[in-house]
């Protein structure tokens, strides 16, 4: 057996022992504080777009942008600047206005101009001042005509969120605090005579309507003749006529949009809008 002898023992000096004791005490007291972990917050995933849409009013259509449907298309036959050149008396002699409408390539600015000038002519004939053209009124009218076609409704009250009333639509184009009114119509793109029976494309064996079987096709309207047809219908309606002849209105813009009526052999029809305001 091995025994430790006194010579094997190392005796620490009192001073050294004190230092070791203090360091030991410090180490036991000055422990590194425990770091508390922050509670984990569960991040909820956003609801799918489909669910959000389902919670919206099902009676309203929703656009990606509230400004959709207000941009006027380009035209090589009619520019905005031409409103300063033509009058209600000179426009009818403008050759492009007297060409037949090609339903596959409709010049909307030209048709809108035709409706504007024919309407203004009616006012002048009855001794009132002609309308002044408003591009903003045209934007509001054209947008509403497009919406009525796109979302399949026919009303002054739009089914598009944010564009329900004429006031809403005017606000969107920058017309505020003014007296205003609107006329709308749903009419034929061909020169159909109301009340007459027609033979359909199915009966004719070709893509046209006629008054006799396989007879001469009913011709497409020209830009000017269509404008005259819709304005005549408006003018023969007391409420619409009142808007056209209201002396409080100084500015006007027209908008149109074509579609094929699925309920009647895809006949080409047009929804047209007039917007009147007292201020630009």
UniProtKB/TrEMBL annotation:
The lineage of its organism: Bacteria, Pseudomonadati, Spirochaetota, Spirochaetia, Leptospirales. This is CAP domain-containing protein. Gene3D superfamilies: CAP. SUPFAM superfamilies: PR-1-like. InterPro entries: CAP_dom (IPR014044), CAP_sf (IPR035940). Pfam families: CAP. Residues 203-264 form the SCP domain.
